[in-house]
Prior knowledge:
The protein is of the alpha/beta class and about 350 residues long. It has a single domain, classed as Aldolase class I (TIM Barrel, Alpha-Beta Barrel). The chain has ten helices and 13 strands. The strands form three sheets. The chain has an eight-stranded parallel barrel with strand order 3-4-6-9-10-11-12-13, surrounded by seven helices. Strands 1-2 form a two-stranded antiparallel ribbon. Helix 2 packs across helix 3 and helix 5 packs parallel to helix 6. The two termini are about 20 Å apart. Bound molecules: flavin mononucleotide. Flavin mononucleotide binds next to strand 4 and helix 9.
Amino acid sequence: MPQLFSPFTLRELTFKNRIFVSPMCQYSCADGVPNDWHMVHLGSRAVGGAALVMTEAASVTPAGRISPEDAGIWNDAQMHAWAPIAAFIKSQGAVPSIQLAHAGRKASTFSPWRGHGKVAEDAGGWQVIGPSEVAFSPSYAQPHEMTLTDIRATIDAFAEAAKRSLQAGFEVPEIHAAHGYLAHEFLSPLSNTRTDQYGGSLQNRMRFPLALCAAVREAWPTELPVFLRISASDWKDGGWDVAQSIEFCKQAKTVGIDLIDVSSGGNVADAKMTIRPGYQVPFARAIRESAGVPTGAVGLITEPVQAEQIIGDGDADCVFLARALLRDPYWPIHAAQELGAQPVWPDQYKRAGVNAFGK
Ligand SMILES: Cc1cc2nc3c(=O)[nH]c(=O)nc-3n(C[C@H](O)[C@H](O)[C@H](O)COP(=O)(O)O)c2cc1C
């Protein structure tokens, strides 16, 4: 059997295969409340055979949204709206998962098809916060440096969001510490110039992200896993890099993180990235080997043979697919056909697996 279709267990939760839906903002909410679009979008990918279906970044506070149309999990209305979506995903044999996020200095921006850069405060935007008063770029908002009270409140917001996620029926929360959003901003010396216990040394820069991990873990049942998404590199000299990522992941593991979802970039506008198929896979492998924690690989993984090789070679324990799954929600079923595994159509679609000659 192809390794891509072998089951995988973390704590007491078993995934039916190694294909996970990567978080993807849909920019389609009002007041952070998911709706029919999210049910059909996420539900289709559960029907399509992915083992885990993760929501888009769900903000833990209103100010943590990337755009005004982002999803949220900071109130009960959002929790109640997520519940049937999580239940449907689970009914299809997939694990429902939610990404918990705060966009920090990259909040209050236009969603991609509505504009570019910051949404002004008098046009539906809001004051953004970050570790330091360093803007992402001239077209982004100028952040307020977070006070110790802001830091405490944000850690509490992640814990509250985790509790609501559990009530909504999600089985895996993922803490978003990648792509230049708040937790990543604390990690990188390019965005964090603080002089208190949350800035300066590596240990100080990791303090806030590790506190988020600990708070979410504490709110989550022991038998269920917690994921962490990181950017393994800023792709810029003097920034966050693989060596620091390995140390961070080692410590994240000790506070109860079960899998690292290894992405990269997003924290500086002038990063020098080389983008090619599987370009982030070596990061997933380095962290898996050196931090001794399961990893997921992501980024330009599009072909079944490529995904099979990543799992078979031990580069990562699972693959997160984003755009390939937008193009084809049935990617896992098609991959099973291509790799010679048993394709699992839902009962209602079984006849799709039979050709014109009844075979
Ligand atoms: C439409 C879209 C929305 C995205 N939104 C998120 C998000 O909410 N959270 C996140 O961590 N990454 C987000 N990403 C990044 C993807 O999860 C993924 O890491 C990236 O697209 C690379 O994978 P791919 O080559 O399979 O698309 C988004 C990507 C796309 C295409």
